[in-house]
């Protein structure tokens, strides 16, 4: 892969103009669930490359460990036993992590300038030095991905190995996958490859096989080939993810209204100060307070 630019295309809580001269490749990671064997090599590679040290887990009677994403587990293998048809048991395994939405809800919800950015190649990244730990990114994410750290009160998630991609390398999880279930490249190339995988699955009897690239968030830069694309909820994926209406309200009508209200309060306070002067305690009130203190003494 050619050297990738990390030009910032969008920043949270800012309208600063971004560079627009260079055109970079739109990248994507394609996860073919039908090829995944649940070995967790990707989960380990993610922790190794990002120098993450998770807590020692507990056995809950299944292969999923830890039970959920956390501030040091940015990618997690999830295991599902389902019956897509009566008397037909299937074991579905999905690599979970940030979807890197083209229209990221986390970025829209974040009130801290520059804490969340979207690069021109499509990767959505967190800059923890600007994070204020409010957790709004969690509310804004339709996939429930970011996690707050109890250690430093900052939000963390998969970076799609933006540091590796910036120097022309594939993400660590892609590099380590032993079955070729995870591939990486230009998004158009990944969609084309996914089409061949979907055709193969349909020939093998999975008539509803398809690509998961939800339009409700503008598409994503992490794509899935699913055997049952008509029912993504079997894999723990939302069927039609979109940015929360609360975020839309905050960024739409509520925010300008709140700013206008604060401005009116400020103007009213200034008007009161100019016409009435500063608040002062009269001599009579001072005497009354002194008299009460003497009585209490």
Keywords:
Alpha-Beta Plaits, four-stranded mixed β-sheet, 4Fe-4S, 8 helices, 297 residues, alpha+beta, elongated, 2 domains
Question: What would you say about this model in short?
Answer:
This protein is of the alpha+beta class. Helix content is 31%, strand content 18%.
Can you describe what's shown?
- [4Fe-4S] cluster 1 binds at residues 36, 39, 42, 177.
- One of its GO terms (cellular component) is plasma membrane.
- It comes from Allochromatium vinosum (strain ATCC 17899 / DSM 180 / NBRC 103801 / NCIMB 10441 / D) (Chromatium vinosum).
- This protein is of the alpha+beta class and 297 residues long.
- It folds into two domains: 8-250, Alpha-Beta Plaits (2-Layer Sandwich), CATH 3.30.70; 252-296, no CATH class.
- The chain has helices spanning 41-49, 105-109, 136-140, 162-165, 172-176, 187-203, 245-276, 283-296; strands at residues 8-11, 27-32, 76-85, 88-96, 116-119, 124-126, 147-148, 155-156, 182-186, 210-212, 222-226.
- It has a four-stranded mixed sheet with strand order 9-2-11-10. A three-stranded antiparallel sheet has the order 1-5-6, with no helix packed on it. Strands 3-4 form a two-stranded antiparallel ribbon.
- The radius of gyration is 26 Å and the shape is elongated.
- The mean pLDDT is 91.
